[in-house]
């Protein structure tokens, strides 16, 4: 085994110079966060060195910041690779109530030419509210369904409605690119989104001449208790990685880092939009997932530990 200089360089982000291993068994962050966080059987001894093999993340302390209903799977994947993973949700996601405006948007979806989903949360919240209406089930033939990526497409398929178009780049810009040349002026599109979703797709489709309706079906709210727990973790333990899976989560992390007075050794971003927001907030260094999925995020972490370098596209 060899030492990887990447982690020493990453100390410039505000982490202390202590060893790369996990916090001691008596780590007070257990008391502060309520999460044990270690992989089954305990982490392998690392003493500042990365362990390769079937547990390449052995001993690395990783904080997963996804919403409660989304983060446990990622925590499990990281633990299986040897990481000492903490789940500290920084965002709460909840479906919005069925208002008159939302009911009208859901009704418009039945006759639209395109029904566009920009997240898995949007799929779940859309069908949760659609069931509350007296509308008949959506037809497999129409509207044509667009997914921002394969995970969103999987959620659609789980409801019996496979995606007709899946963006190659898993961003709102990727959705616009996927629809270029497919849509026609005068067509109708319904975009399913959350309260904090970036308004990228609708303006682009209007420029293409489409009539666009937004169905805002879920709310993103910062978990202030989670921000405080992350602050405590950063103050009382050496944290190797904090995950960033949306711009809003990057903003919450930046608040916790500022309050703690120190950050992790580095950040792991789900994709370029989140990376851009993180860098604008002064969060660095950043590893970027490739592809822009949970699997890509895990692969990026493993590659970073093994190579000592940030993988994927070069970051300016």
TrEMBL record:
Going by the entry's taxonomy, the superkingdom of the source organism is recorded as Bacteria
The EC number(s) this enzyme carries: 4.2.1.75
Q: Which GO terms describe its molecular function?
A: uroporphyrinogen-III synthase activity
Keywords assigned by UniProt, alphabetized? Lyase, Porphyrin biosynthesis
The residue ranges of the Tetrapyrrole biosynthesis uroporphyrinogen III synthase domain are: 73-299
Biased composition annotated in UniProt, kind: Low complexity = 1-13, 34-43
Q: Where is this region: Disordered?
A: 1-43
Keyword check for Lyase: yes
Q: Extract the coiled-coil ranges from the record.
A: none
Family, as annotated: Belongs to the uroporphyrinogen-III synthase family.
Any idea what this protein is called? Uroporphyrinogen-III synthase
- Organism listed in the record: Hydrogenibacillus schlegelii (Bacillus schlegelii)
């Amino acid at each position: 085994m060899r030492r990887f200089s990447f982690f020493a360089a990453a100390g410039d982000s505000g982490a202390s110079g202590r060893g790369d291993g996990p916090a001691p068994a008596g780590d007070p962050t257990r008391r502060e966060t309520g999460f044990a966080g270690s992989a089954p059987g305990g982490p392998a001894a690392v003493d500042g060195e990365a362990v390769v093999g079937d547990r390449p993340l052995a001993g690395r302390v990783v904080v997963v910041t996804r919403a409660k209903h989304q983060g446990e799977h990622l925590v499990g994947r990281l633990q299986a690779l040897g990481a000492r993973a903490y789940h500290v949700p920084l965002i709460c996601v909840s479906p919005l109530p069925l208002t008159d405006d939302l009911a009208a948007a859901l009704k418009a979806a039945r006759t639209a030419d395109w029904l566009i989903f920009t997240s898995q949360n949007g799929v779940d919240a859309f069908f949760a509210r659609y069931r509350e209406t007296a509308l008949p089930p959506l037809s497999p033939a129409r509207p044509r369904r667009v997914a921002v990526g394969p995970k969103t497409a999987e959620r659609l398929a789980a409801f019996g409605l496979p995606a007709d178009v899946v963006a190659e780049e898993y961003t709102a810009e990727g959705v616009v690119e996927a629809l270029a040349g497919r849509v026609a002026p005068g067509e109708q599109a319904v975009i399913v989104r959350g309260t904090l979703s970036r308004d990228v797709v609708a303006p682009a489709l209007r420029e293409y001449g489409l009539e666009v309706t937004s169905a805002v079906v879920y709310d993103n709210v910062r978990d202030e208790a989670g921000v405080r727990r992350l602050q405590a973790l950063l103050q009382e333990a050496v944290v190797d990685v904090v995950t960033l899976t949306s711009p809003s989560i990057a903003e919450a992390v930046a608040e916790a880092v500022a309050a703690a007075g120190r950050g992790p050794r580095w950040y792991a971003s789900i994709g370029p939009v989140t990376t851009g927001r993180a860098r604008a907030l002064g969060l660095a260094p950043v590893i970027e997932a490739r592809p822009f999925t949970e699997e890509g995020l895990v692969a990026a972490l493993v590659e970073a530990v093994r190579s000592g370098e940030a993988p994927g596209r070069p970051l300016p």
